[in-house]
């Protein structure tokens, strides 16, 4: 039996398929090696490309040799095999009735799914016919696309009874959608009116993916179709060669088959004339000079048949199956319990035909691309293949350089719901939309994505940070108070301060015998200048990359030198206060503040700070640390104090000394004399305390390297305050007013 579709009019191509079956049967019956002494018969039914008609033919097959003879289910059919139907929708109906399950349909859908994945078409539309084929194909495609990155943007159905209004609605969806790739599961009969309206609407830019049902249809190869269908790609049945088909078709004529109405319809379709008179078709009588109509020229093109070749192989497969079954002896068969069954493997036209364990022929499809021919018409160009014998994932072979896409482009068209997220960003699926529709969110600082369409951004390792584009992790920038603009400025100020102090020291030493120097206790002045020099210079320890030794030295050096300086000022304040208050006869207070006692006071006060620093270094000394908490993109090298208690004890002790000096100097501020040093000590300690009181909140709130800069600034500011307040007035008299550098003037006894 062969069931074929004639659409709603006579289809010469479908009739050629039936003739191919007839040719194969005749060849087998003439063979002396295949089914010798047996004759094959056949019965041909026409489904009219309509599932219900095909269903009626299948029921007839089950009950008899013709629909008229067996209108009801009565007798068993003598038919052993069914070939067809030529249309996919009708094939599904027939296979259901005959209880034949084929997995080839799944392979076709699998091939299309692999094609979509191969070209990264993640947002596609589906248009299908209103029949079982369309429904099955859509379900199969959705099943195959699960787990892939491909989403279906819309699913539209062409009505079985064509409706132009519905077709226009489908076209509007196609135009408005971002999906520029449309997969079509439909037969050429449904596509013909649809594409006619599609062309009227002048819609272009759609990349069609055709099913095997219409990808090789010659009806769409005219030049008028190219602007709209050019670039179409799809899977076609493997083409082959039937050596006798061309000559055999030429024997089919009204002369040889005068009583066959189908041959008469064939002639009318091919040549546009009637071979017999009178004719119900109102066509002119054939003269024998007519030429083949262009729209049916493919009927005689037998150079590389596809469907016809499939029919030819199917008939031979049935014959080989029956032949093997006849040769098999009961009890020695190759199957379970030594039974006989149909095991088919043969060669035809140079091709080896075999079947899998499910009874299906191994799927093999040509990938067809519609390209512009030299005459402007559409040519079907083979640009690849789907080979079911290959391992999973390797079945698809495509020659991309041979493909012409929609719009006569050479570049693969883009069909996505959302543009790919570049490296440096991640995909964020939009709520309520398919996974193919997403927004691109830039990676947060410290995270990167180095691939396109990354689902998430990954953290950089601890000592690395993301670059500006968030595509690679780069080593974090290491910062410390280096010899840059800030470091150089602090260095210059520190050196200038130390040089000024040394300059004052030299001035005092040169004028050590003058009244100003002698009255103000030259030894203590030299001690103070010595301590101030080191106060200025200890600021240099805060500049540069922290090391263990520099961290220990910077805090202890500045605390001890400042403590020494304040101790000297404290001793001087006590001497000044004692000198001007010891007015009663016999008051021996000054004997307790002689040079030796002054040294003891200085040593004792300084030693307390030394002991605190020693305990600090022994218990929890400062050490270099890598601070990544303040600014995660940087590594700030700083000195951790080790023990916060010890650090604040050091500062607190210096503050205690300064407060004591301030109180004593404040008490002595109104003592007589033109040069009352207590006033200058009061101002210097007041500036010192103001600087360090401002230092505390500034130090705590300053980030990273700026904490060291704040501490350095506090050291320099307080050092300059002491230097200028204590020694500027003296230097002024020594250098600019030498006439006032007398004991009488300084004591206020000058007449």
TrEMBL record:
GO terms for cellular component: plasma membrane. It is a multi-pass membrane protein. Residues 486-750 form the G-protein coupled receptors family 3 profile domain. InterPro entries: ANF_lig-bd_rcpt, GPCR_3, GPCR_3_9-Cys_dom, GPCR_3_9-Cys_sf, GPCR_3_C, GPCR_3_Ca_sens_rcpt-rel, GPCR_3_vmron_rcpt_2, Peripla_BP_I. Keywords: Cell membrane, G-protein coupled receptor, Glycoprotein, Membrane, Receptor, Signal, Transducer, Transmembrane, Transmembrane helix. Its main location: membrane. The chain crosses the membrane at residues 486-509, 524-544, 556-580, 600-618, 645-668, 680-700, 712-735. It is found in: Cell membrane. GO terms for molecular function: G protein-coupled receptor activity. Pfam families: 7tm_3, ANF_receptor, NCD3G. Belongs to the G-protein coupled receptor 3 family. This is Olfactory receptor C family, v3.
